[in-house]
Structures are given as C-alpha cells and as structure tokens.
Amino acid sequence: MNRTSLYHHIALVALMALTLFSFGCKSKTSPVALSDETGVVAEVDSAALVPQELAVDSALIAEEELLISERERALEAERVRKQQYDADLATIKPIYFDFDRSQLRGDARVTLDANGRVLERQSALELLIEGHCDENGSVAYNLALGDRRAKAARDYLVNLGVDASRLRTISYGKSKPAVVGNSEAAWAKNRRCEFKPVEQ
Q1: Closest alpha carbon to 45 in 34, 54, 35, 37
Q2: pLDDT in the model for residue 7
Q3: The pLDDT value given to residue 45
Q4: How many CB atoms lie within 10 A of CB 112?
Q5: 20 to 30 Å CA-CA from 188: which of 2, 74, 77, 116?
Q6: Count of CB atoms within 10 A of residue 36's CB?
Q7: Which residues, in sequence order, are CB contacts of 34 under 8 Å at separation 6+?
Q8: 99 within 8 A of 187, measured Cβ to Cβ
Q9: Cα 104 to Cα 95, 151, 155, distances in angstroms
Q10: At CB < 8 A and 24+ separation, what contacts does 95-101 make?
C-alpha cells in the first residue's frame, strides 16, 4: 500500500468512526453510505445505532397518544349525552287541571305521554312532581288538592312503565302561583303540576 492509499484509508476509517458516533447521538433511522473515490465501501443501518431507551420512549409516547385519543372520544361522547339530556329536559311540560279537580284532562294525558317518552330515553332521570292550586280555598284544602294532582300524574306515568322510584311528589298548594292575578286566566295557569329533575 503506497502512502497516498494509506492516507485515503486512514481518512475513510476516521470518517466512519465520526459517522457512527454522530448517529449514536441521534434518532435517525435511514441507512448511511460511506464511500471513497472507488465506490461504496460501507453501509451502516442507523436504526441499529438507536439506543434502547429511545425505543422504549417511542413506545411510551405511542401509548400516551392512544390514551389521549380515548379520553377525547369519551369527552365527546359525554358532551353529546349532556346535549341530548338538556334537549330532553326542555321538552318536559307542565299539565293543567280544571277548577277543584285532580282528574287528568285529555290534554294532560297527551303531555304526560310525551314526558313519559323522555323518561324512557333518559333512564337515569328522576322527577319531582309538584302539585299546585289557584288561590281559591284554604291553605289546608289546597295542599291536599295539590297532593292529589301530583299523585294522579305520578300514577299515570307509572302505568306507562316508569319505575315509581324515579318519581317523587310534593304539594305546594296555592303558595307558588305561576301567574299572579285575581282572574280566571291566572287561576287556570296556577292549577297545575310541574316536573323538576331531581339532582343526583
């Protein structure tokens, strides 16, 4: 080997050593070709030079990305569920009664049918059924009448298939009018049952 070839050989070995050191400090994985003027003399797969710790880190990153994706899907599902829940609650309507009566009218039955469908969709929903009266009559009489109205609404929903444990009743008598006024129009709005969600 002449002196020129020796210098070329030493330079090539030094270049290979420098390249191996450089790839040992980085995470590139493409093949590395080393050559001199005569052609390719060596090819190194840099993936083999990636430290084991980096491979473990990559697995942990992939696992964390999967967990984040699952959490995002769960949050989106909860958002949709809450949106549907709020929309269903908005469709629950009060029912109304004739003067001094607790029997359900035809329009009240239609409303209760719709309310029952909401309870069927929202299987965890519990309702407080409030019985109300107009201002005519004594406090004691109206408390009893409001109680009968609330229980009539509850019994109808139970007959539709709603579990009775999901329905509670209370009577407010004439103490909480929906409309303040001393007229038949106001009284008609106050002879009612309202349905409020029970906070879990």
Answers
A1: 34
A2: 54
A3: 53
A4: 23
A5: 116
A6: 13
A7: 12, 15, 16, 19, 40, 41, 42, 43, 44
A8: yes
A9: 9, 11, 11
A10: 95/153, 95/192, 95/193, 96/188, 96/189, 96/191, 96/192, 97/149, 97/191, 97/192, 97/193, 98/191, 99/134, 99/136, 99/187, 99/191, 100/136, 100/137, 100/145
Give me the pLDDT at residue 27, please. 45
The one-character DSSP state at 198 is P
pLDDT 10s digits, 154-177: 999 999 999 999 999 999 999 999
Mean pLDDT (the chain) is: 82
Give the position of tokens 């049918």: 113
Contacts of 85 (CB under 8 A, 6+ apart): 122, 125
φ/ψ region of 64 (left if φ > 0, alpha if ψ in -120 to 50, else beta) reads alpha
- State which residues of the chain have pLDDT below 70: 1-56, 200
pLDDT value of residue 77: 80
- Give me the pLDDT at residue 19, please: 56
Task: List phi, psi (to 5°) of 97.
Answer: -130, 155
